[in-house]
Design a protein that fits this description.
Number of strands: 11
Structural class: alpha+beta
Largest sheet: 6 strands, mixed
Strand content: 15-25%
Strand order of the largest sheet: 1-2-6-3-5-4
CATH superfamily of the largest domain: Metalloenzyme, LuxS/M16 peptidase-like
CATH topology of the largest domain: Cytochrome Bc1 Complex, Chain A, domain 1
CATH class of the largest domain: Alpha Beta
Radius of gyration: 24 Å
Distance between the termini: 51 Å
CATH architecture of the largest domain: 2-Layer Sandwich
Number of helices: 16
Helix content: 40-55%
Order of helices and strands: HEEEHHEEHHHHHEHEEHEEHHHHHEH
Shape: globular
Length: 446
Amino acid sequence: MKQHFKIIIAFASFLLPFTLAAQMGKPYEMTIDGVKVIVQPSGNEIVVVQTIIKGGVQNYTADKEGIESLALTSLTECGTAKDDKNSFKDKLDKVSAQLSGNTGMDYATFSMNCIKTDFGTVWPLYVNALTTPRFDAKEFERIKQDAINNIRSNESNPDVAIDRMAKQTAFKGKDYAKDPDGSVATVTKLTPEMVKNYWKSILTKSRLVIVVVSDLDKETIEKSIRSMLTVIPSGKPFQQKKETYTPPANSFIPQERENATNYIQGIASGPQPGTAEFNAFVLAMRIFSSRHFVEIRSKNGLSYAPGAWFSAGATPYSNIYVTTTEPNKYIAVARQLIEKIKAEGFTEQELRNMKTQYLTGVYYRQETNEAQANSLAANEVIHGNWKRSYQIKDDIKKVTLEEINNVFKKYVNHITWSYQGDPKKVNAVMYTQKETPKVPDDKKAF
């Protein structure tokens, strides 16, 4: 009986997104003053608007890491030309509205979330925060110190530390080596004037995409956005750079660190978003992640939390991660697994199961207006096609077993390995040698 109940719940969760989709109107796009505006009628009383600023880490040099993150935080924490911080927040609190900013590797997002009946009150606050932020010196120092404290906290987190090292190693000299949050050194040097000038430089129509998820009528949306855009300059033409990471050989960089265990992360290649190989590789890496978990944790007891995933962006790459006290045995088992998959391939059953699992997760994560807006924004900026949000079901169904086997062979080849822990515990040659290493005898491992 319990098992039947679980199946019913899972099936209901899978159907829910389609029920919601039936209640919503058809999405559409329009161009207002040269800016693409994507609208998804919501079927509810919530209004979500996201202004997307393209570029991400491409927008600033390495010595300015953290500047975009501080700029986005300042929009809601430093007040505007019309309101100081307290007055601004009081007006939002009266209608329980939320404004927030976030930045990542490829773009920044400034969002508003309110009830439809409060749109007339919240929209002017949103526009003021976006276009006339105050960058008050006192409040800026407060949020800068908060950012520095957060960076220091992350530096003591070994998971964050190995991920940052892995990206800095693989993408040395490239945009993806930058950290959107910055470092203590870079953030400390930032001033209100520097951040203000930076924000002014990137808030241009040429970089913008606007996403609206709400049941506001088209005329209201167009009138509101057109009014906002009148105070935003056109800016120079902007093109999002896309790069492919293809390491020429296996490499291994160790770093001594006093962790309770050893942290290892490898970065390999991956297909560009918008290409025919992309969806196949998403599924291939997810199946590989499951096999990697079973092989490393369940069968060999080498780690409590092994992982593998695909990072999709303007520079796509795949990741393999582990924490282990036996780094030599780990790499032998992991590389043997990779070679076995390349030789024998995945199975039809694995592909069928992963298609269902992946699509259930995609739709489940799109139940809120905010999540739908996030999906539309990501697909537009990363894939160049916001409609992918609604086409993904059909696209995933078309992926074949031959395709996932081929893309895994093509992209999971040379791996850039980063290691933090005890250097004496690891034999670097096992990570870089061309031939697949043998599993070491436990008694002779070290």
